[in-house]
User: Fold these one by one.
Assistant:
Number 1:
Amino acid sequence: MSGGVPASPRRSGAAPLPSDGKREALAAGSPIQPIIKDVGEIYSRLLDHRPVIQGEIRYFVKEFEEKRGLRELRVLENLKNAIFETNEHVLPKCEQAMHDNLNEAFKRLQAANDMIHRLQEREHEERKLQADKLMAREEKRIAHWEEFMKEQQNKRAEVDEEHRKAVERLKEQYSEMEKELAKYVSF
């Protein structure tokens, strides 16, 4: 508590003031001296905490600098060693393993890609072959249909011709029958 509480005259390193000397001279021979001494002790116990606080500060600094500082140095040293170990040994091993595995994976992927490409070509050829067969069947069916329609037209023409001839014959037959009947009716 520096600043707010006046320091006791006995503790200050400065030369005593002239007025302080009078006080001490008066207090030295008087019955107030034990009271002043008791008040000084009470004051130092209750209000002057500098020695206690300084001891705590020294203890805290000692703990922080020595113990924690060494612990943090050990932690930092361990981290440095771990990083060095990782950079020197683990990282190259990982890079080599990754390189080997990636090469193997790349080769496998290339093989799989080639196989898929061949399968796609086969499927494309099979589809093309099926499409060609389908087109050939369709052309054959169309040709067969056209031939069938021509045959039907020829048969229809034949039937129409036969029908026309039959109608002509029947007309002739009926006209002869009418002539014969006309002979018999004229009697």
Number 2:
Amino acid sequence: MEKIRDACENWGFFELVNHGISLELLDRVERLTKEHYKKCMEQRFKEMVANKGLEAVESEINDLDWESTFFLKHLPVSNVCEVPDLEEDYRKAMKEFAGELEKRAELLLDLLCENLGLEKGYLKKAFYGSKGPSFGTKVGNYPPCPRPELVKGLRAHTDAGGIILLFQDDKVSGLQLLKEGEWIDVPPMRHSIVVNLGDQLEVITNGKYKSVMHRVLTQTDGTRMSIASFYNPGSDAVIFPAPALVEKEEDEKKKQVYPKFVFEDYMKLYAGLKFQDKEPRFKAMKAMEESTINLGPIATV
């Protein structure tokens, strides 16, 4: 518990090894993901690179990520059966894997509650919109890049949502996190699950836990697999600092930092500002909150 507390307060990242997910399932998911990329996505990516002339670039690219991805939704409604080009055994494996990750995400949220001194289930309830939390997976592949110094696999950002569980390639590296101005490698570790915290947990914990900037570097050799599952608030969930944590703050200024907002509104803002610092996003939501308060109730006749 102390290791998790330290990781959440000082790093925003930690790695799970004894997570209880079947190693056979992890191996199956990895094998099927790599087979699917080779069969259905690799050629498309090469065509995109050729069409945009990316192999001949001579200057740094700041508006594109060197990645090939698709998305699966699990909650509140699954689309796993509707995504095209997936073999049936791959669909089954991803559904089983998502179920395992959902359980771990909810268990981790309760462990965070215990560390924070919040009642059990508080964070899960905070994420619960009218239809429950949202949960989805970004399946990514980062192919070899001829000019890794000029293009990122994924540009630096914090994650907008709640808690993220990543199953990554154990042979091809690339993930880095920002710590005190230095980029630090998150080394591949076989069968581990990397966990990081999103912006919503920073808000709910009133800044006690932080979301952290991270990025993916490209490599000249090997395709890096990345399966990131996002356990997020429901779209209409109202997000705000936990009153019990605000009350503990002795510094009055720290009681007024984070905004109250609807998660969907934050995501609309995030869509255009993902690769920028998070603080302006928080300030924008705070200004929106204060303008709504200042307007007061609207008179009706």
